[in-house]
Automatic annotation (TrEMBL):
Record membrane topology: Peripheral membrane protein
Species this chain originates from: Microvirga tunisiensis
Function: Involved in targeting and insertion of nascent membrane proteins into the cytoplasmic membrane. Acts as a receptor for the complex formed by the signal recognition particle (SRP) and the ribosome-nascent chain (RNC). Interaction with SRP-RNC leads to the transfer of the RNC complex to the Sec translocase for insertion into the membrane, the hydrolysis of GTP by both Ffh and FtsY, and the dissociation of the SRP-FtsY complex into the individual components.
Gene: ftsY
Taxonomic lineage of the native organism: Bacteria, Pseudomonadati, Pseudomonadota, Alphaproteobacteria, Hyphomicrobiales
The name this protein goes by in its record: Signal recognition particle receptor FtsY
Keyword tags: Cell membrane, Cytoplasm, GTP-binding, Hydrolase, Membrane, Nucleotide-binding, Receptor
Stated family: Belongs to the GTP-binding SRP family. FtsY subfamily.
GO CC annotation, single: plasma membrane
Residues the record lists as binding GTP: 250-257, 332-336, 396-399
Oligomer status and interactors: Part of the signal recognition particle protein translocation system, which is composed of SRP and FtsY. SRP is a ribonucleoprotein composed of Ffh and a 4.5S RNA molecule.
GO molecular function term, any single one: signal recognition particle binding
Length: 449
């Protein structure tokens, strides 16, 4: 009997001091060939954790000579190019088996048995979300002057219509009604003479009769137009005088500097060369504002530091404008209250200095009036006319007040030309004054005919 050698103890046996049993190698489970010809290989775990760690049993592959006929790769798949099917392995899922394809003359095709399988439909790719197209912005139609005027004067016309036309609703003209009408017209700042004339026109031939509100508006517009027609005069630039000097005066906040900018642009559109003189040396903001307007309209601006002598600056501006052949020179002045004697004396000094250079200058002295001040505008015209010799009026901010009727009272008393009126901030909101349009706008009529 041959001598049997004892089994060599394993690592765990040697470690724990006992002999390890001979490992039992289980029979390999039948293998299923994978679609690609590579069977799954999983090592069998040891039967007991205390046993020796042994190598995994050998596995059989399609290349092994022991592979059975039924486990071998079909001949038609021998040269297949294995590729994943699109849509069956979406991003973020577990890996999937590649499906075999057959190489044919037409290209790669799936096996018939796999092509007929009930495969899940591929998930559609998320639709591309495109930003919503920006809404088409259609430019607002340009508003004509009549539309801007009526909208700007709506507060005045509404106040006047409510107080005047409301008196004649289901009432006959009698002494009491006519007296109330006259009071309403005076309170609307139209002035006593104009109020009396309108009242007489309404009462003429209609005493003790009913009258419609529309008829009252028509009579009101007609009488206002008669008062304003003589003063509605355009500002004419005498091109034989170079420069044509325009002195701008008015109280603080009336809008002198802005009006200068708007007039400059209108003159430039007429083909005239323009120069601006920043004579409001009391406010640094006024100097900067005028410089901005000069850049905007393409007109040079002569300016000095804050506190500089305004009369000396006006003289220098005249010299430079004369040397350059400038058509129009607009001189800004500091806003001053009409009841401040010292400030009004400085304005008189500017006029004297300008006349030393050109006895005919200034060729126009425009008083800028803020319509919101109402009856206070009457004293402004009176005092500025004495100090600077006002030759024409510019009424601004008619869109911000219900006191637009003051222009009628000014025309009635002073008979000064009204050159421009303003109903907004834009350049196009300052336009030459026309009596008929103003009269119909203040009466609340909707047409210019």
């Amino acid at each position: 009997m041959a001598e049997t050698k004892p089994d060599k103890p394993g690592f765990l046996s040697r470690l724990f001091g006992r002999k390890a049993e001979a490992p039992v190698v289980p029979e390999p489970a039948p293998e299923t060939p994978r679609a690609g010809g590579h069977p799954d290989t999983m090592p069998s775990p040891p039967a007991n954790a205390a046993d020796d760690l042994t190598a995994a049993p050998p596995t059989v592959t399609t290349a092994s000579p022991d592979t059975t006929e039924e486990d071998k790769t079909p001949p038609e798949l021998a040269g297949a190019d294995l590729q994943p099917v699109e849509g069956l392995d979406p991003e973020g899922t577990n890996p999937q088996e590649p499906l075999p394809r057959i190489v044919t003359e037409a290209g790669l095709e799936l096996r018939p048995d796999i092509a007929a399988a009930d495969l899940p439909a591929p998930e559609p790719a998320p639709a591309e979300i495109l930003p919503s197209p920006a809404p088409e912005i259609k430019p607002s139609p340009a508003r004509g002057w009549w539309q801007r005027l009526t909208e700007g004067m709506r507060r005045t016309s509404s106040s006047l219509s409510d107080s005047v036309t409301g008196l004649f609703t289901k009432r006959k003209l009698d002494d009491a009604t006519l007296e109330e009408l006259e009071d309403a017209l005076v309170q609307a700042d139209l002035g006593v003479p104009t109020a009396m004339r309108i009242t007489e026109a309404i009462a003429s031939g209609r005493y003790n009769k009913e009258i419609s509100p529309q008829e009252v508006k028509t009579i009101l517009a007609g009488e206002v137009e008669k008062t304003l027609q003589p003063v509605a005069q355009a500002l004419t630039i005498d091109r034989t005088k170079k420069p044509f000097v325009i002195l701008m005066v008015g109280v603080n906040g009336a809008g002198k500097t802005t009006t200068i900018g708007k007039l400059s642009q209108k003159f430039r559109q007429q083909g005239l060369t323009v120069m601006l003189a920043a004579g409001d040396t009391f406010r640094a903001a006024a100097i900067e504002q005028l410089k901005i307007w000069g850049e905007r309209v393409g007109a040079p601006v002569l300016a000095r530091g804050q506190g500089a002598d305004a009369a000396g600056l006006a003289y220098d501006a005249l010299q430079e404008a004369k040397a350059n052949g400038t058509d129009v020179l607009l001189i800004d002045t500091a806003g001053r209250l009409q009841n401040k004697v010292g400030l009004m004396a400085e304005l008189e000094k500017i006029v004297r200095v300008v006349k030393k250079f050109d006895p005919s200058a200034p060729h126009a002295t425009l008083l800028v009036l803020d319509a919101t001040v109402g009856q206070n505008a009457m004293s402004q015209v009176e005092l500025f006319q004495k100090a600077a010799g006002v030759t024409g009026l510019v009424m601004t901010k008619l869109d911000g007040t219900a006191r637009g009727g003051i222009l009628v009272a000014l025309a009635e008393k002073f008979r000064l030309p009204v050159h421009f009126i303003g109903v907004g901030e834009g350049v196009e909101d300052l336009e030459p004054f026309t009596a008929r349009d103003f009269a119909k706008a203040i009466a609340g009529l909707e047409a210019t005919s």
